Amino acid sequence: MITGTQIRAARAALRWSAETLSKKAKVGIQTIKRFEAADNVPPSRSSTLLDVQATLEAAGIEFIGSPTDRPGIRFGSQPSASGKSNRR
């Protein structure tokens, strides 16, 4: 699982607005705002949080650490032209 802090950091690193992430992840803007308001793992349906995580990973973000041990982000492999990550 990822934290609200990681979501905020990933979105900032990509220079995406909350609206952009909302559209790309196909979740509501209020859901993104609620997720980002949490410093830890946001209370949610795990499938919705996983959709947000997958969207950010497809854009080249790698989530590191764990929610309780130095959570963070870094740029992983470059996304392909289709927007999907090249990682296997």
Task: Write structural notes for this entry.
With 88 residues, this protein is of the alpha+beta class. It has a single domain (4-75), classed as 434 Repressor (Amino-terminal Domain) (Orthogonal Bundle). Helices cover 47% and strands 15% of the residues. It has four helices and two strands. It has helices at 4-14, 18-25, 29-37, 46-58; strands at 61-66, 69-75. Helix 1 (4-14) packs across helix 3 (29-37), helix 2 packs across helix 3 and helix 2 crosses helix 4. The mean pLDDT is 89.
Task: Quickly describe the structure.
This protein has 88 residues and is an alpha+beta fold. The protein contains 4 helices and 2 strands; from the N terminus they run ααααββ. A hairpin with a 2-residue loop joins β1 and β2 (69-75).
Strand content: 5-15%
CATH class: Mainly Alpha
Q: Care to count the β-strands?
A: 2
CATH architecture: Orthogonal Bundle
Secondary-structure-based class equals alpha+beta
- Averaged pLDDT, please? 89
CATH topology title? 434 Repressor (Amino-terminal Domain)
Count of all domains: 1
Shape: globular
Q: What distance separates the N and C termini?
A: 19 Å
- Tell me about the largest β-sheet: 2 strands, antiparallel
User: What is the H/E string?
Assistant: HHHHEE
The DSSP helix count reads 4
The CATH homologous superfamily is called: lambda repressor-like DNA-binding domains
Helicity range: 40-55%
Q: Which spans have pLDDT < 50 for at least 5 consecutive residues? A: none
Radius of gyration, whole Å: 12 Å
Strand order of the largest sheet: 1-2
